[in-house]
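Subject: Sanity check before I submit

Could someone independently write out the structure tokens for this chain? I want to compare against mine line by line before I put it in a report. The sequence has 321 residues.
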Amino acid sequence: MIRARAFWLTGKGRGVLRPEVLPDPGPGQCVVRAMFSAVSPGTERLVATGRVPNALEQEMRCPYMGGRFPFPVKYGYSLVGEVMEGPDRLRGRKVHVLHPHQDLCVVRCEDVRPLPEGLPPARATLASNMETAVTAAWDAGVSVGERVLVVGFGVVGSLVARVLGLGPAVELEVVEKRADRRRLADTMGFAVANVPGPEPYDVAFDTSGTAAGLQAAIDSVGVEGRVIAVSWFGAQPARLDLGGSFHSRRERIIGSQVSRIPGALRPRWDAARRTGLVFRLLERPEFDLHLGPPVPFARLPETYAALIGRSPEGLSPLIVY
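---
Independent answer below. Compare away.
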């Protein structure tokens, strides 16, 4: 028997650490001792406030989730740890696994993703949100020299901006309402303002999590411009104004979602190849700037509400085990 502790949401904004007794690993399974996990504030805020739509509960389930929506539920999807028991090829390796916040876990060997030697484990917790950012960039089809706007500088928005900044000489700008995040974006070297510029953009990403942010993205693009809707609103409606120049400009709104590889890439790309790309990108030390301050796992119940709030310190809250 393996004794573990897991973080469970028991009500809106409330969570506890619960003991769990795990079965010994069977064939094709391994035991992972957690080192770090990341809190994804946007998605986990929707879960923690009970705003997962009934019709989408199955799609919103994450691997190794416990319980059911709305509560009690064990939720999370970016954990990094060390394989303590398992096949020789994995034992002792640092791995990333889509798993809720938990100090020990028994998982299928096929679900662990060994880290490259050059990737620090704490930084690897960004991998799940980086997959979202990479997929959004693919969905946009950004070309050399295009004017690109990112609305919202949260975890995903910052990673979208970073990924595009590594790409084909785009002219990138960030729009963020919060002054502290504008300062953070400026510190990271991004052009940032609180409203879009007067010239039309070729592509605009909405990562703000607000209808106002999505509207700003729609209003900012030019003729045949693309709006990449990355934010997910859950059960919260998003009311938009599609009058004015939306139709005359023939603008396109593209829904981006990480669970599917874009159709044009699917003949050559799969989830494993995308993960390899994400790990290679995360070997760059500048991604450390996207991590929030460390929080001990033992303090997660008392700090969780602040970590998923609208004003968490830093970008990607880091849980330390």
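---
OP: Matches mine. For the report I'm noting this point. The first helix runs from residue 41 to 48.
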